[in-house]
Amino acid sequence: MNFVTHLECANCGKHYDATLVHGLCVECQRPLWVRYDLDALGKKFSKKDLPGRPPTMWRYLEMLPVNDPAKIVSLTETVTPVVTAQRLGSSLGVKNLFIKDESRLPTGSFKARGMTMAITKANEFGIRRVAAPTAGNAGGAMAAYAARAGMESYVFMPQDTPAINVKECWLAGAKTFRVNGLINDCGRIVGEGKVKMNWFDLSTLKEPYRIEGKKTMGLELAEQFDWELPDVILYPTGGGTGLIGMWKAFAELEQLGWLKSPHKPRMISCQSDGCAPIATAFAKGERFAAKFENAATIASGVRVPVAVGDFMILDAVRASAGCAVAVPEETIAPWMKKAISLEGLAICPETAVCFGALEMLLARGDILPHERIVVFNTGAAQKYPEAVHEKIPLLDISKPIDWNKI
Q1: pLDDT tens across 141-159, in order?
Q2: Which of 4, 218, 235, 372 has its CA 20 to 30 A from that of 181?
Q3: What CATH number has the domain spanning 82-108+208-387?
Q4: How far apart are CA 404 and CA 203, in angstroms?
Q5: Residue 76: closest CA among 101, 34, 112, 49
Q6: What whole-number distance in Å separates Cα of residue 122 and Cα of residue 373?
């Protein structure tokens, strides 16, 4: 059994029947939360039940909205490691820097968490055709899980989406389209096609369940830190589902009494100044973010000029006493190279944004050197060849090697 009681609009509070298919709130067109009977859940399930369970995100099954475990659509979503980053931390002057490496998940990014949950719920509801706009990784994840479930899938992505993302969607059998616009333009196409094409819209936060999959990042992190949460979390923010999901996870864990203290992390929303709607709204003290015009960044996952969950991101950031910041676009590639060369982890450009933000916030005194800091690596560097412009010399083996140039 699951412990879901209802769905609830994150904006106006309207309740919806969780046994029926829903997208956005019909009253205000804002996202829906999944709500649980946490009192009942706590009586049936405790953290003492976790040891011995398989090391996947499904170890928290009772805290997820699954009705029928037989309908779960999975590619084995492993618990991702928290890796100490001593060399990188030392270069920044911090003592306790950790990287939670989501690149180990199926399809190479954190998007696997959301899509395994969304496709699982679609499978439970009998949905057989799905569609989504994507900046890259979400489309690849949706295509893979839809293929696993035997569903038909449609993916729409900006024409300059990394080539590997385009190819992985196509290889997984998705009907794949490039669009001469941004992700919001792709989202408009998906929305317009709902009636004509009879597909279910799996856009970020336009259905209630991707956030529940992303919530497991927070559940894992809490368990990995022995239920004593870190001081700061830096998270690259496009649609923001992961940040919102983790904040929801921490609130549920607190209500269940699983946390050793009420202390919760300061959530830092990290963006590039090439696309910074959330950082701009935060600086202005606004709850809703205006569309960011002429969005451009090599960190394609944060190139989201309009986020339907903007207020949810900003609410979480402010409730945590955190902040939203934008870093100079030109610092992303150097931080990507520096982080990988110091730690050997395949850091994506979105995560490089977080290291730029960490450097900035340390200089401002908003993060202190002794604090426990977690940065999320949301995807594998190998999926972003266009973000790297290397100059690697060619050795001509027809000539003697000039060892002075080696």
Answers
A1: 999 999 999 999 999 999 9
A2: 235
A3: 3.40.50.1100
A4: 54
A5: 112
A6: 36
